[in-house]
Amino acid sequence: MQARTAIEGGADAAAAGPKRRLRMAPKLAYRNLFHDKVSLFVTLIGIVFSVVLLSFQSGIYLGIERTIAAVLDQTKGELWVVPIGTKSVDDPSLLPGREKYTVLSVPGVENVETLSMGFARWRKQHGGATTVLVVGSDWNAGGLKPWNVIDGSVDQLAAPKMVAVDRTYFKDLDVKGLGDPAEINGMTVKVGAITNKIRSFTTMPYIFTTLGRAQIMLGAAQEQGSYALVSLKPDADVAKVQETIQARLPDAEVLTRESFRNRSINYWLFHTAAGSGLIAGTALAIIVGIVIVAQTLYASTKDHLNEFATLRALGASAGYIIQVILLQALFSAIVGYALGMTLTLGIFKLAENTTLNVVMTPGLAGLLFATTIAMCMFAAISAIFKVIRIDPAGVFSR
Fold first, then answer.
1. pLDDT tens column, 348-362
2. Residue 369 CA, distance from chain mean position
3. Residue 135: half-sphere exposure toward Cβ, Cα within 13 Å
């Protein structure tokens, strides 16, 4: 009955003018699509799976990018002095020392702050230990300070033994709130401030404290740090100052903040297994979506070959039939995307308080919508090839 209705609707469209055919194409596409609900269900499952996987992979990518660059994005200054061979901001080592005074003597430099970072052993109050990434700076002089503080205050970290930890890592660090004790490389410490959602890509918790305290924990000299953060005067030529500093510090690298940011992101995403897995997962999502949608649209078109042949015999053009198939793919993409994005946002909500940082932005949502439509349109090509080869005369031989 529905097939006959589709033929009748298509016949009317074939006999009518271009405007009439344009109005009838969506109606015919809708009827073809919803005629076989099992086939439609399989199509939507494939699209939803692809949307969720693509969203998750893309969200992880953005989350990783922001996590890797979090420390850099929270700092001021145009230049970073880093140890030679540093691959990422999360791959710290110690500079030789006294870089601050050398840089301050360069014309155009306004301020230099030392940032001390390094891996340390956190001994839990109830037994056991884990590795943490200690970050020390003089934030009162313009250095890096903890952000997203939700309990306690940065000022409290000036008191003896105080450190800041992130709520995300409470379980890993065996702490529950302010005042809880622990030990870092043999030094007794207490939680003096709590941050929220400051995650490390390496999954090792950031522990913030004062510069002097961090230097003691990491075994660094008083004038030694991992990085030197350089702020320039407003009228300074960044490239010229960078070149001058590099000439005076041959045992270190001088990078702009943006270039160090890109280096850090590129290292983790394109030179480690984590990045390869992320790219492979994204490619898999696209391939799975195209294959499932293509198979379903092809099967649906094959089931309606006689109807399409009848429409061709009644005068419907190949362009009109192609339009119907593409509209079927478009309807599938819109419904599948809506369902998939709803499920994705629910998953992202559950991941908010975990160490996994996944991000969804309006721009990414729009890009995923366009990708879903393109994927479904590409998948419809196999069905289109089948239809345009139909011999209209074949309908009279049945």
1. 888 877 767 788 889
2. 16
3. 26
